[in-house]
Amino acid sequence: MINAKSKSNKVALTLENMNLDKFVKQRLEVNSFSEDPFRHWIIENLIPDNLAHEIESEVSSIPNELWTTFNYEMQRKSQLSNLNLLPIKTKNLITYLNSADFLQKLEQLTGVKNLISDPYLEGGGLHSLGNGGRLAIHADFSRHNKFKI
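Given the sequence above, the corresponding structure tokens read:
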């Protein structure tokens, strides 16, 4: 569990208040998923509304010079992958989504074992596609430089 504090209250990010625990139990019991266009689940309301709004506000205030801009045929976007440059609540959420607790629930949900998170955010982090932005299906890399996999 990690904490995300606001002036008015304290929100602890846990599987319970992120609605994933309940979701996983329900979906595993009924094996509910969609096959179109590929096997997937939609997890509604994963992040509590108040925290989502706080993170939206944080991300909107990140200075332009911290973002890396890509302008290629397959992608026109900005990206911020340095965890240490992220605002605190955003950093806490990404850290939680990379945690063992969260990965275990994803393994339970998907049936895929031994998932590995990427705390280095290689190719991950925040992505912003403004007007004219593009992120087509593509493969950036087939090897993780830090993990050598």
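DSSP finds four helices and six strands in the chain. Try to locate this feature in the token string yourself.
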